[in-house]
Every structure is written in structure tokens, then in C-alpha cells.
Write a sequence for this structure.
């Protein structure tokens, strides 16, 4: 019996290379299929804007692809784990490794190490590429696929409350007194809580005592009639600083930038449960790749000729997908304040790590 955690160098490289190839193959297949389906929906909206053409479609594809890669990389690791282990089992390679004195953990060690490297690479990729692509794509989408102002601080889909009233903006650019809002809507609520009227405009700027909406059009809900207002000022209690805080998008900020945003929220006395949960999840999501070989390990062990190999593969796949379901549910509970942010982000990871280890030990060790 060997007491080293890893098998021989040759066997480690053999398993790692096999695993990486399958991860890449599954990831490319998933991303290409999902990107084509996504383009079927988005192409019409992009080409509906005068001046947009094939170049803008390619731009959308390059911005959407990093999001798909980040989201489906853990799924690819799970499916690659099942494919790799089933192949090893069918060819009796697992039996040969066990006969050589390797334990189940030693057989899985190269896959776990590879998954850890993939997780670290995923974190770096998310920080350097995905957050920027997400910010750009959301700003472009909020601007209805028209040209977005060249501003590195563009933010999209902002909602700020002024008492019972709400100021909504498609995009926010600039900062301080030069903050500019586009696709602006001001919702005024009646005492009952229903929308009494709204004011829409293409652009709004800070006047020092409110937001001046240009080319404003008012709509009265009760009378179902609209009127041209020209220029009108709304939201005198909403400052540019509040607009900046209201425009924080956790998906479009890096781990370190989001930490600064959380500190700003806390300094302003605002609720931070949602963004703090997503802040922790920026660490947990890449690390979920490490869980996949452990959850799919049930497919590696047991005699292939027993007729239960397919059942074992299904069980491994079910454990992996169950993790993603529980993880999303816990994150949603954390966003609503049902769980503490730390627990919402890390509890599913720890729980399924224990489940995977328990299944592995009871079925093999």
C-alpha cells in the first residue's frame, strides 16, 4: 500500500492530461451551443438599431462568451469527471490501479489537483475578463444596443428611491456633479403605494437641487394620458453619491472593487447582505470545480461488468447538479437576508464536500 497522496508522476500526468482534454471538449461544446441559441434571441434586437451590422453581432458574441464560460465551467468539470471515470472503469484501468495498491483518494488525486488549478484559473478569468465583459454588455443592453458613451464607469439598470418615489436609469456615466443618466424614468407613487404618474426622458443631469430630465414626457395613470413637459426637475433628495451606491452591480465588479463598495454601503448605513453574499460567492463559485471530481467519483468504482456503471454515473451526475441547485437556493436566501452571507455562500460547498467524501468512503474505502 502506498502512503503518498499522489500516484506516480507518469500516472498523475496521464490522468491530468485526460481530464483537461475532456474539460475543454465539454466546455467548448456547451459554450458554442448556448451562444448560438443566445444569438438567435439577441441578433434581432442588435440589427434593429440603425448602423449595427455583423461587427456588432461579433462584439456581442465576444462579450457574452466569457459569461457563458464562467457559468458553465463547473458543469463542464462535472461532466468531464463522469466521462473520464466511466472510461477508466470500462477499460479496467481503475481495477489495475487498485491492484497496484492505490487507494480511491490516490486515484482521484490528479483529478482534484487539476480541478483546483482550473478553479484558480477561473477566479483569475472572472476577475480580469468576465467582470469587464459583464459591465460592458449590461451597459450596451440597457442602452438598447446603441453606442455607449466611452466611459469606464458606465453602470446599467439603476434604481434609487426617494421616499415612496423611484428614479430609474438605463445607464449612469460620469461622477459627482457631472453624473449623467440616460433612459430615465421617474415614478411617483400615490399614498396607497400604486404608481400615480411617471415622467420619462432620454437624459438627465444633476442641477445641484435635483435631476433635470430633458425631452420629458409625463404619463398620468388615472387619466391614461400623456403630456410633453420639456425639461423638468425631479428627485431633489437623490444625490450623485446615492446614485453611485445604487448602481453597484456585484457581477460587474471585481472581488476587490466589490469589497470597497461594501465598505461604502456600510458607511452610508445601507443593507449589504445581498452584495456581501455575492462577494463571498466570487470565491466559492470557482472552487466548486474542486468538488466535481469528488461528487462524480462514484462512477469510478465498482465493477463495470456488474451492470451498475450507468446507475453510478447517474448518481454522480445527480450529486453534482444537486450541489448547483442547493448553492443557488442558498445564495437567494442570503440575498433576502434569510441566511448570513458567509453561511449562504460556503454552507453548500462544505455540505457537499462532506457528502462526496462520505459516499466515496462508504462505497470504496
Amino acid at each position: 500500500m502506498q502512503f503518498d497522496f499522489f500516484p506516480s508522476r507518469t500516472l498523475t500526468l496521464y490522468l491530468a492530461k485526460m481530464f483537461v482534454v475532456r474539460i475543454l471538449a465539454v466546455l467548448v461544446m456547451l459554450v458554442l451551443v448556448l451562444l448560438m441559441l443566445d444569438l438567435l434571441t439577441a441578433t434581432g434586437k442588435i440589427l434593429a438599431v440603425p448602423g449595427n451590422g455583423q461587427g456588432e453581432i461579433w462584439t456581442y458574441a465576444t462579450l457574452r462568451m466569457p459569461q457563458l464560460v464562467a457559468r458553465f465551467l463547473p458543469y463542464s468539470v462535472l461532466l468531464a469527471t463522469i466521462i473520464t471515470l466511466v472510461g477508466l472503469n470500462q477499460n479496467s484501468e481503475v481495477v489495475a490501479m487498485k491492484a497496484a495498491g492505490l487507494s480511491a483518494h490516490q486515484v482521484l488525486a490528479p483529478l482534484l489537483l487539476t480541478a483546483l488549478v482550473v478553479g484558480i484559473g477561473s477566479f483569475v478569468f472572472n476577475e480580469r475578463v468576465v467582470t469587464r465583459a459583464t459591465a460592458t454588455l449590461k451597459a450596451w443592453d440597457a442602452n438598447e444596443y446603441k453606442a455607449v458613451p466611452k466611459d469606464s464607469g458606465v453602470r446599467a439598470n439603476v434604481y434609487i428611491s426617494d421616499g415612496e418615489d423611484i428614479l430609474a436609469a438605463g445607464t449612469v456615466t460620469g461622477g459627482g456633479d457631472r453624473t449623467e443618466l440616460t433612459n430615465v424614468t421617474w415614478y411617483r407613487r400615490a399614498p396607497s403605494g400604486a404608481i400615480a404618474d411617471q415622467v420619462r426622458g432620454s437624459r438627465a443631469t444633476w442641477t445641484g437641487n435635483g435631476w433635470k430630465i430633458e425631452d420629458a414626457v409625463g404619463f398620468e395613470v388615472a387619466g391614461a394620458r400623456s403630456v410633453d413637459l420639456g425639461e423638468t426637475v425631479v428627485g431633489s433628495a437623490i444625490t450623485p453619491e446615492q446614485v453611485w451606491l445604487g448602481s453597484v452591480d456585484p457581477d460587474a465588479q471585481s472581488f476587490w472593487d466589490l469589497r470597497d463598495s461594501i465598505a461604502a454601503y456600510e458607511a452610508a448605513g445601507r443593507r449589504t447582505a445581498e452584495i456581501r453574499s455575492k462577494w463571498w460567492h466570487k470565491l466559492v463559485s470557482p472552487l466548486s470545480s474542486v468538488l466535481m471530481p469528488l461528487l462524480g467519483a462514484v462512477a469510478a468504482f465498482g465493477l463495470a461488468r456488474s451492470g451498475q456503471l450507468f446507475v453510478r454515473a447517474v448518481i454522480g451526475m445527480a450529486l453534482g447538479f444537486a450541489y448547483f441547485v442547493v448553492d443557488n437556493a442558498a445564495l437567494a436566501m442570503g440575498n433576502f437576508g434569510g441566511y448570513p452571507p458567509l453561511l449562504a455562500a460556503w454552507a453548500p460547498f462544505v455540505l457537499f464536500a462532506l457528502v462526496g467524501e462520505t459516499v466515496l468512503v462508504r462505497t470504496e474505502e
About this structure: The mean pLDDT is 85. Residues 164-236 form a domain with the lipopolysaccharide transport protein A fold fold (CATH 2.60.450.10). The longest strand covers residues 195-206.
